[in-house]
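Q: I have 236 residues here and want to know how they pack in 3D. Can you give me a structure?
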Amino acid sequence: MKIELHRIKIRDVVAGYADNNEEGVVAYGGKLDVRPKYQREFVYKEKQRDAVIDTVNKGFPLNVMYWVKTSDGTFEVLDGQQRTISIGQFVNGDFSVDFNGRTAMFHNLTKEEQEQILDYELMIYHCEGTDKEKLDWFKIINIAGEKLTDQELRNAVYTGEWLSDAKLKFSKSNCVAYLLANDGGALLTGSPIRQEYLETALSWINNDDVAGYMAKHQHDKNANELWEYFQNVIAW
């Protein structure tokens, strides 16, 4: 397992920041998948979000973040999604905070105040390794606060076209799996956006060996096999 600590300025992290709602959030000049498609939605409350900006403004350290390096050399956020989105939204002008005794949005700050925010260094670990190494490591460091589910941890490892298609079908609010299951009377428990529908379908199709199925099919072009199996189960 290769784990490297990097100090990356906010100005670099938020470069190209774009929030496309359920289509995902990107930053770092398009090289960072902050919130992969159809994964967890933004969950910070206003007080938590504002506390992130206050911490940065005062120059206090934020907790370290973890980025997973993917096969194409880009990154996905494993831990730090909420903090990254809070910072991106503030710099993007999406909300105001109590800043040095006044209510202000980023564009209302003085040039010196803006530069202080943008020059703040985030402590970010880059992680890469085998699937097993990454899963073992992520379970060890998982994660104070909004803990990742087991399926979210697996999603950080088995990235690719198959997973993107599976998330489209099983992990979006009111996704087709949710609509089908509820329409058929076989109500599933849990939340699609927390990956619980996806985890259930994977457990069904492969006798509870979720990671084994994901490893086998990681490089498939789509998740049609899983979707067809799920449809058949619901139809029973």
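Q: Anything worth noting?
A: The first helix runs from residue 10 to 13. The first strand starts at residue 2 and ends at 9.
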